[in-house]
Amino acid sequence: MKKFAIFLLVLCVAYFAYATVTETHTVGVKSTSRAHYKNTAPNFSIMGKVSIVFEATDLDSTVTETFESIYGIVLRIVIDATGTDGAYDVLLRDESDVTIFTKTALDSDPAADFSYAVYEDDTEGNPWAGVPVGGTMDLVITDAAALTGLTVHVYFLDFWK
């Protein structure tokens, strides 16, 4: 029985090691990382996150970062800025240039709340949580020259493909 329990434990550890996926790439001083669990069954979804990190030299002009395809629903955006800029803009759009999320004139006050639920209105004006997307996404940052750093996290439900 003890050997069986050890075997079962090793099997569980091996499965979770296989199921965890982290993808990271770095372009210049920007870095993008994506972490989620592999979807291994039909009709199965799991929360995922894409994090994009910009350093001060990236933010001197308008910057656009394209990240990997998401097939699912974008639910939340978290913006973590450092510096003293009082009027920078954040825009997230899909591969068809449709705006998924936009905030203008953000400031980098450490006490400010930079966590936003992403929602969309139906044809009658009723809001519902999340915006369905399928494909690559662009994150556009403008007027952020006074920031010393900026990280944007995009949380989503990633559907099985």
Task: Please explain how this structure is put together.
This protein is mostly beta strands and 161 residues long. Helices cover 11% and strands 60% of the residues. It has 1 helix and 11 strands, in the order αβββββββββββ. The strands form 2 sheets. Strands 1, 2, 3, 4, 5, 6, 7, 10 and 11 form a 9-stranded antiparallel beta sheet that branches. A two-stranded antiparallel ribbon has the order 8-9. A hairpin with a 7-residue loop joins strand 2 and strand 3. It is globular, with a radius of gyration of 19 Å.
Element layout with pairings:
Layout: H1 2-19, E1 20-27, E2 30-37, E3 45-55, E4 63-83, E5 88-94, E6 99-106, E7 115-117, E8 119-121, E9 127-129, E10 131-142, E11 147-159
Antiparallel strand pairs: 1-2, 2-3, 3-11, 4-7, 4-10, 4-11, 5-6, 5-10, 8-9
Poorly predicted regions: 14-31, 36-40
Order of helices and strands: HEEEEEEEEEEE
H/I helix tally:
1
Tell me the fraction of residues in β-strands, as a range.
over 45%
